[in-house]
Amino acid sequence: MNIRAWIKGFLPRTLLGRSLLIIVSPLILLQVVSAYIFYDRHWDTITWRLTSSLAGDIANVMQQVRREPDAAERIFEDAARSMELKLSLEPGEILPNQEEQKRYGFIDALLAKALDERVKRPYRIDSTQFEDRVVIDVQLADAVLSVVVPGSRLFSSTTYIFILWMIGTSLILFAVASVFMRNQVRPLRRLARAVDSFGKGREPEEEYKLEGALEVRQAAAAFNLMAERIRRQIRQRTDMLSGVSHDLRTPLTRMRLQLAMLRDDPESRELKENVLEMEKMIEGYLTFARGEGGEASMETDLSDLVIDVAEKWKAGGISIDCHVEGRIITWIKPNAFRRCVDNLVANASRYGKTVWLRAGKRGDAIEVTVDDDGPGIPADSREDAFRPFYRLDRSRNPETGGTGLGLSISLDVARVHGGDLTLEDSPHGGLRARIRLPM
Predict the structure, then answer these.
(1) Residue 201: which region, alpha, beta or left (left: phi > 0; alpha: psi -120 to 50)?
(2) What is the pTM assigned to this prediction?
(3) Options 3.60.15.10, 3.10.290.10, 3.30.565.10, 3.40.250.10; which CATH number does 297-438 get?
(4) CATH 3.30.565.10 in the chain, residues?
(5) Taking the CA of residue 346 as centre, how many other CA atoms within 13 Å lie in the half-sphere pointing to its CB?
(6) Highest mean pLDDT among 1-5, 92-96, 358-362, 382-386
(7) Distance (Å, whole) CA 149 – CA 54
(8) 405-439 as b/e, with b when 16 or more CB fall inside 10 Å?
(9) Count of H helices and E strands in the chain?
(10) CA-to-CA distance for 104 and 129, rounded, in angstroms?
(11) 78-127, pLDDT tens digit by residue?
(12) What is the DSSP string of 252-308?
């Protein structure tokens, strides 16, 4: 397996998760190193000193008893008072022969080593109740010395203190780091939501506030500047097109009035048709250039919108089969999206006898498809079909070739909403136009 791919799959996907992993990894490494140093140095040293001190006390008691056998009781009382050792002699007892005493842990090994160095007599260790007491039996010349040692003489409480402090401080540091990283990641999430909303054509309720780390503030400032430039360009374009629309429509209106005053003959009717065609072409050009950029997004029932478009085409005598999967509520620019679907249905009805209009949710997206049973568009010409003023029908007749702006306007509207428009083969034999919008 590729190590890089394994590491990439192991890492959390979110920035917060990766940041916490960056913090936790050194923290765990620090705790491991600390624990190693503690057990290798502190635990080893302290335990050895405790066991060595105990072995020395036992050896000292044995020497005193050897020098003063009659004062054994007094010596044992002094040892119990000053050394916390409970001693007793069992005359005539002999420790059972054993090949090697079973060791129960690290302390047993150190205690045995200390007894070998200090006592130098056969012994037996019972540490089954280590934390409460340890029993050591030492073989003397004519008796067995039984020593009951309290666990406090061999067990250092610093072990528990160290573990508790290590875990406690780690949890506190992790909690502080989590709160800190959440505060740092929150502005990034807000910025991501603002960018996503702006990319889908939804105007944010308010300008993104500059907060968080310096780099996040710089990214937010760049986003605000970019958004303002785009808004300004849209306003300038809209204002310019309004002026162009007024300047072009004014002479056309005068021409229509003048034509209305002429007698009704073939020449005047032809001129009237040319003026109407020119008005339609100008309206199409302006609609394409305007792109419905000034319309605000709002929460819309897309199901009702699609059904309404289908009903209007049915009323116009077009054979259209409409099916919507459930109720679809989303944020769109309703007039722009209606124009988008309307253009696709118009193209489908122009070249096919029947139109199939479908809408539904597909995963994390909304899909609207328009199918027809017409001749379709060759695969190598589908990209060109989206170009402005491009017409598969090379004639200049708008009734057969249109103005060449329908698909361009629909693509522009789909991308304004953060989605896309693609052309595919239809299962009905013609062309399928698929609109895909993010939820």
Answers:
(1) left
(2) 0.50
(3) 3.30.565.10
(4) 297-438
(5) 18
(6) 358-362
(7) 8
(8) bbbbbbbbbbebbbbebebeebebebbbbbbbbee
(9) 13, 11
(10) 11
(11) 888 888 888 888 888 888 876 555 555 667 788 888 888 888 888 888 87
(12) HHHHHHHHHTS--SHHHHHHHHHHHHHHHHHHHHHHHHHTTTTPPPEEEEHHHHHHH
- Number of Cβ atoms within 10 Å of the Cβ of 130: 15
3-class DSSP state for residue 359? strand
Short-list 406, 418, 384, 422, CA closest to 288 = 406
How far is the C-alpha of 229 from the C-alpha of 193, rounded, in Å?
A: 19
Q: Does the pLDDT value for residue 368 go beyond 90?
A: yes
For residue 116 the two structure tokens come to 């070998």
E-only strand ranges, 384-426: 420-425
CB-based contact 202:438 (threshold 8 Å): no
Residue 247, both tokens: 């300047």
Instruction: Specify the residue for token string 């007749």.
Output: 397
| β-pair type (354-362, 319-324) | parallel
